[in-house]
């Protein structure tokens, strides 16, 4: 059985940037959300921002994240994870929420600082510091997700052992 796919997304400088007035959503976010929905991934938004700020930005600027996210974590959950696991976005903090195997992915502009090495896939993304309609970093993230999932699936599908025919072996014959 294939594991459940879970994707942890950072908000600030990963999905967009905030200039004290407006949260500017990174181009192609809808493509990423569509991909995650297509592969039936749980989406967890996890931001170091204050809880109220995260809720406000998600509600107003990232409505599809709000609509499809399994969980939305802010500063409070980051602190809990850090106190327990020494990482703000610790994999174990996510894994204990599930009673099944998961393929855990993380997308963050500070992946090595915020996410431990027990993620199945950690994707470092270029920080999005100012609006740029030509930014294609999210498409590169989508490509990395697709390629990693295909590789993981290939590893799970080992070739079947070939058995030798026995004396009571009868070959199926198709008649047309």
From TrEMBL:
Residues 6-156 form the FCP1 homology domain. Gene3D superfamilies: HAD superfamily/HAD-like. The gene is AVEN_212404_1. It holds the Pfam family NIF. InterPro entries: FCP1_dom, HAD-like_sf, HAD_sf. This is FCP1 homology domain-containing protein.
